[in-house]
Design goal:
The protein has 267 residues and is an all-alpha fold. Helix content is 86%, strand content 0%. It has one domain.
Length: 267
């Protein structure tokens, strides 16, 4: 028996683990350098940085509002509909509010918003940075003594965090409106129930996830755009890889936070 074949799965697993840790290290360094440059040069180019942040918020957040409105309405409608049609759950309006906040605020609101931002903005962001690499625009900035990480990457990370947080809150609000149509309650009774069962902890979880997701998505997307080197064919490859990795990271982070909350509750 060839012993090398027995070690092949272990060797492959080890290589994949090293590659994954190296990739994670590169992401952390990429983000750290951009954040450090933003802090160090906070008094330089404020107008340019602010313009880039506003542009990113407009592209990622404002332009997505119509689509996010529909998604939020459907999420709320489906959540409350499942509650009403399930006799095991339909035991009072207060429970309806608690279930809504757990499902929408803690879990599906930030998660669905993050995946939609990945599909809509993550690909475009990676492709944009990749095109700038191919066309030597980033090289031109460096030749002029301007840090691309400071001017291009850091504002997009800030804009992504702000957009993700605002969109998550907006989706949660629209979901609340969507659930009203199937709740069978009056306007004041429904929203009174929702706000009575709302806790500051639910909002903290929503904000924490939104800020974290909003940071991870542009960091990964920009990093993969940054990896483009020579050929234009690298742009769609890196953009697709960035989207896949974004989805994987968001899924793992969300699962980890949920597991920590369950441990806190049941532990």
């Amino acid at each position: 028996m060839n012993l090398s074949r027995l070690w092949l799965p272990i060797d492959t697993l080890g290589q994949r683990t090293i590659e994954g840790l190296t990739y994670l290290k590169n992401l952390v360094l990429f983000f750290s350098f951009a954040l450090t440059l933003l802090i160090q040069n906070r008094h330089h180019g404020r107008r340019l940085i602010l313009r880039e942040v506003i542009s990113q918020i407009y592209f990622t957040g404002v332009n997505a509002l119509p689509f996010m409105s529909v998604i939020g309405l459907v999420l709320g409608f489906v959540t409350i509909a499942q509650y009403r049609w399930n006799p095991l759950l339909n035991s009072g309006t207060e429970l309806m509010g608690e279930i809504f906040h757990i499902v929408i605020l803690r879990e599906f609101g930030p998660l669905v918003t993050a995946y939609l931002i990945i599909g809509r903005s993550g690909t475009a962001l990676a492709a944009h940075i990749g095109d700038m690499r191919i066309s030597h625009q980033i090289d031109a900035l460096e030749a002029m003594g301007i840090s691309p990480l400071h001017l291009l990457i850091a504002p997009r990370i800030l804009g992504g965090m702000i957009s993700m947080t605002c969109l998550s809150l907006y989706v949660a609000l629209m979901a609340m409106v969507g659930g009203m149509f199937i709740s069978g309650l009056s306007f004041f009774s429904y929203f009174g129930t929702m706000f009575r069962s709302l806790s500051s902890f639910d909002l903290l979880i929503l904000l924490f996830k939104s800020l974290l997701f909003g940071m991870v998505i542009p960091v990964i997307a920009c990093y993969h755009g940054w990896r483009v080197q020579y050929a234009s064919t690298e742009v769609p490859q890196q953009a697709s890889l960035g989207v896949v990795n974004c989805m994987g990271f968001i899924f793992i982070i969300n699962g980890t936070i949920t597991a920590a909350l369950l441990y806190r509750y049941w532990g």
